[in-house]
Amino acid sequence: MKSILLLSLPLALAKSSQKPIVESETGGWALPRGANPALIDKFRPDAQNQFKCLSSPYTIPYALVNDDYCDCPDGTDEPGTAACSYLNHTVNPLPGFYCENKGHTPTYIPFSRVNDGICDYEVCCDGSDEWMGVGDVTCENRCESIGKEARKAAAEARRLYEQGVRAYRSLVAKSVLLKKEEEDKIIMLEGEIVRMKGLVEDRKRELKEAEEEQKSRMAQPGAGKGKHGQLLDFSRERYREMKEKLQRLKDDREALQTQLEQTEKILETFKEEYNPNFNDEGVKRAVKAWEDYLASKAAPASDALDFSVDVQSLLYDEPNWDEWEPEETILDDMYAIEALFPPFVRSWVHEQLSSLHDWLIESGVLAHRKTSPSSSSTSPKVQKATDALAKAESDLSGKESELTRVRDDLSKDYGTDNVFRALKDVCTEAQSGEYTYSFCHLGRATQKNRDGGHTHLGDWTGFEYRLDDEIEQEVLVVKFESGAHCWNGPARSAYVYLRCSAEEKVLSVAETEKCVYKYVATSPAVCGGSDGEADVPDSQEETWQT
Ligand code: MAN
Q1: In the record, which residues are listed under signal peptide (predicted)?
Q2: Tens digits of per-residue pLDDT, 150-176?
Q3: Whose CA is nearest to atom 4 of ligand 1?
């Protein structure tokens, strides 16, 4: 995560200061009031006791420095008064009056606030900016207590930050595992899909066979076939069953082979990636068992290829059963006569043929009442095969959708180091005004009113960086968009500005414009630096620590 600390240049310069200069160290001359000791050489008088303006080509008598009158065009002769405060920073290179703040952090206060009769302790805790006593004001030096409090607050902030960094690392570790689980799921699903596709093919074949069987039953009279015909039917049925079983065995064998290859791949990766330094006995035993398995694994049989060719030909070479048919079918031809008649008499012809069909059964020519070819009724076997195919197809499509979902999930942006993956569905909420606001990571933001009504503020759409005005830092913002429509306005949306802390917490929520909600929240997810390392804030200036 990127975290830009907007330190102003003057403050940076203030922090680079050294110990205060005293007159004895400079041979009778003292650094002018309000000047930074880092600039001692710039402020030293020359041999003629003159001062050279810092950024304009003028020299003035040294006695005019800090005489409360602006002599240099760039105002640098007045580092300790407000005399040149009307000049802006493009003219005057000095950032302001330098407050030494011994016991706390040195800093600059704008020239306009020097000797204005107000003690500006939040900037100049030593009160040195009010040295003239304007309006009889006396500003005591409070740097010791203010510095102590500031150091305490900074230490606490740092402690929380470091806790956040540790929490960030655990989140990243969890995200790595979750991602790995998803990747393994893809391998498993791919294997299952291969197996299920085979199953769908089986079911299709079974349905086709059941339909053909039904068709042949409908078309062929059962009686009058004789023993030869019955033997042929029996052989054909047995042949079909054996072929079906052989096909199933072949598919199962291929699916198992695929699964075995995937399992071996997982174990191979496991062996390559495990850390032998962790000394985990269970893991070591597993690795050893895997190595033993590899050493004892039998090579594939040399005739494996012949075997599959044989199976293939058994499956696809079908005897020409028609050659062995004992007699012509009669029902097909009989009912085909219907088509020769004009449409308006066809149903009458059909009734006559049906009566003839009944008479053939009654007189023993046909054994049973068979369904005529024009009938659309489905046999239980065909129905069963249809249902089995529908189930296999729906199972397959379920697995395919699951695979698409997992693949989509893996391609989503879950932030640096995928850290937000570990926070999926972690929710936090806070009361603000008349509402309770909540948001769930990678989920939804919601506004709840006191009557228990929920308003949808948006669904997670991703991240972007924005400036958090309050802390003057660019922070990661989680976006929730396309929420419930706002009356006379846009669809609601919520933006969660995250700050680093070990705890998931909503600090504040404001409706910054109609139906646009700004959350400020803390999360360990933003405690990683841009290079994955912790972006720990600067500790308090060490210079004056007691
Ligand atoms: C509800 C709330 C408010 C929103 C108004 C807009 O009262 O969701 O936050 O401003 O609707 O009509």
Answers
A1: 1-16
A2: 999 999 988 988 999 999 999 999 999
A3: 515
